[in-house]
Design a protein that fits this description.
single chain; 432 residues; alpha/beta; Lyase, Ornithine Decarboxylase, Chain A, domain 1; TIM Barrel; 2 domains; 9-stranded mixed β-sheet; 12 helices; 24% strand; binds pyridoxal-5'-phosphate
Length: 432
């Protein structure tokens, strides 16, 4: 096992993913190549769904935060696993529609839904809008009223929690482009307004405090603030908040320095806190919604590359260049995200080499990692970066006119292309 159960080494000394030889997969499908282990993904879905029902009650629903990895095949799996989904754009909604995802289980997020997004989502019959701010409340109300419908909504609230994580992905603070803050009084204002707004039905509240969080405390703090706020709404407005969406954000083991997380245990602990807090604040426990993204798909993924130039700069460092980079994984360039890499065809050899893994773009910052421990790398080797299922394909670009790699799903010893490799023809498709 390497980091996660589904990564291992076979008798040939090759990295296996879900029991399949990664070197064979690279040969068959070419590189760069995204692999998603479907069983690993479905297992995570089941852990969330079962723990949510067991600890929060039968009506609890985990939503898959689709920004983490979005294509039609993923939505089909989410539907089969009994999940809801959260979508943040017209493009994600369109993909969900193409996949036949049940619209009533879609939560429509985002801090700036355009009028067209709002109208398209209503055409689709999207179950719930998560309204970010006052202005958006008016826009949703206007369109719903014009149609003569009542749109179910949640309000996005910022509880003001610092989840002790990377600043660039902190979203629960007061000064955030997302939501209305409790601390400034804006949250209560928008709640009062929503209760009296035509065309919308205020079902509940949403908060999302950040990502890659390994401790229960920030979630418990957020739950405490949200339940107190719900009690305050009951007292001041005589209005019952029936649903509380606690967002996503549980961490993922990217390297051996990250702790292993027992997700069911985390959900159990958060549920205990929520139940106690509801009692303490004198409110009925609202229906709980969870919104994991990364912790459902990240570990299920790996990316395979072919090693090209290997350059050793004496007294400085070694560069191992691969045939992908920031176009398929911009996360090191954006946030110095740490990954585990290895030479897939030498996976049983010790990691005695240290190198910076460089991408192929004309950009010095195009790196996949620095000071990485690797097996000795040579031109033609297959390099694997593990735990790339989240925020890789979904953040991919065509920078330098590089076609996006395919996504291959593997399950029970079989592989199938879920997203085709882009061609150069795809690259010029919209050029007129
Ligand atoms: C990003 C995001 C999520 C998912 O976060 P993860 O860290 O991937 O679990 C959930 N909800 C909202 C509103 C988000 O913005």
């Amino acid at each position: 096992m390497i980091l996660h159960k589904h990564f291992d080494v076979n008798a040939e000394g090759h990295l296996t993913i879900g029991g399949m030889d990664s070197v064979e997969l690279a040969k068959k499908h070419g590189t760069p190549l995204y692999i998603i282990d479907e069983n690993a993904l479905r297992t995570q879905c089941r852990i969330y769904r079962e723990a949510a029902r067991k600890y929060f009650g039968e009506d609890a629903l985990p939503l898959y935060a689709s920004k983490a990895l979005c294509f039609t095949g993923i939505y089909k799996i989410a539907a089969e696993e009994g999940m809801g989904i959260d979508c943040v754009s017209g493009g994600e909604l369109y993909t969900a529609k193409k996949a036949g995802f049940p619209a009533e289980r879609i939560y429509f997020h985002g801090n700036n839904k355009t009028d067209k997004d709002i109208s398209d989502a209503m055409d689709m019959g999207v179950g719930t809008f998560v309204v970010d701010n006052n202005d958006e409340l008016s826009a949703v109300s206007r369109e719903a009223t014009r149609r003569g419908i009542t749109q179910r909504i949640l309000l996005r609230i910022t509880p003001g929690i610092d989840p002790h994580t990377h600043r660039a992905i902190v979203t629960g603070n007061v000064d955030s482009k997302f939501g209305s803050a409790i601390e400034t009084g804006q949250a209560m204002e928008i709640v009062k307004k929503a209760i009296d707004t035509e065309g919308v039905c205020l079902a509940g509240l949403h908060c999302h405090i950040g990502s890659q969080i390994f401790d229960i405390e920030p979630f418990a703090d957020a739950a405490a603030i949200m339940t107190q706020f719900i009690a305050k709404i009951k007292k001041e407005c005589d209005f019952e908040i029936k649903e509380l969406n606690l967002g996503g954000g549980l961490g993922v083991r990217y390297t051996e320095y990250d702790r292993e997380i027992d997700y069911a245990d985390c959900i159990c602990k958060i549920a205990k806190v929520v139940t106690e807090l509801c009692k303490k604040n004198g409110i009925a426990q609202p229906r709980i919604i969870l919104e994991p993204g990364r912790s459902l798909v990240a570990a299920a993924g790996a990316t395979l590359y072919t090693v090209g130039s290997v350059k050793e700069i004496t007294g400085f460092r070694n560069y191992v260049s691969v045939d992908g980079g920031m176009p398929d994984n911009p996360r090191y360039a954006l946030y110095q995200s740490q990954y585990t890499a290895l030479i897939a065809n030498k996976a049983s050899e010790p990691k005695t080499y240290r190198a910076t893994i460089a991408g192929r773009c004309c950009e010095s910052g195009d790196l996949l990692g620095e000071n990485m421990e690797l097996q000795k790398a040579e031109r033609g080797d297959i390099l694997a970066v593990l735990v790339t299922g989240a925020y890789n394909y979904s953040m991919a670009s065509n920078y330098n006119r590089i076609p996006r790699p395919p996504v291959v799903m593997i399950k029970d010893g079989k592989d199938r292309v879920a997203v085709k490799r882009e061609t150069y023809e795809d690259i010029v498709r919209n050029d007129v």
